[in-house]
Design brief:
alpha+beta, 5 helices
Length: 281
Amino acid sequence: MGITTAVADRKGKECRELSRDNSVKTNGKSRKGHRRQKRMLPIQRLYDTCKEVFAESGTNIIPSPENVERLKVVLDGIKPGDLGLTADMPYFRSSVTQRYPAITYLHLCECDKFSMGIFCLPPSGVISLHDHPGMTVFSKLLLGTMHIKSYDWAVNDPNTSAANSSPTVPPGVRLAKVKVDSNFTAPCNTSILYPSEGGNMHCFTAVTACAVLDVLGPPYSDPDGRHCNYYCDYPFSRFSVAGVSVPEEERDKYAWLEEREKPTELAVEGAHYEGPMFKER
């Protein structure tokens, strides 16, 4: 997912500073106090695992299968309470004054290797269809029910060449294959997408109030060519293409995607993360 705004980025910086301040205070505690802490906090374990898994992170660099599984196991074990989240928080309430429900982004941390953050969506909140160029993304649904629709470009499909070069298809419109089109209800397993598969382009719609923990490796970066692109999707039947043969029963597995400007209805507001703190080390 991984969409942020200037406001969210600013709030994220404040949150990172708060986290570091808290770490200094933690260091001042006695060694005896540390011994009494029998187990590491889940958020600390998540940060430490991300730092190791994404140590060599870069555009189109995918962690090893062992490291992907390792991080997935940690995320699968994260519960809302581990991050200080409850369903009655104001982030999850719809406002009668807003035409489009605002989404709240709780920034946990970001470096040049990875980022962690939580998206809080009120009912009917939508994170528009967007991509994650050259990135590996782990998404853990923490609360509620969410509809996820995701796509990958149909690069190895026999219909791709004819579809993307057809004069009946407008310039900039490309054929994609549907990866996921379903409702998910927490608790559920972590979903993972890769630079060219796994549903790299996705749209999230809150069926009920919900929260999603996102880990991106590496994070978005315009200078490094990892710019967040947005898309409109059209049904396969929208365009008639000579040379493209798809059985009627399989046409709902394809769609046409067209890049667009960032949707004006997408509103993401930054807020302080107030859950358990962790040490960035």
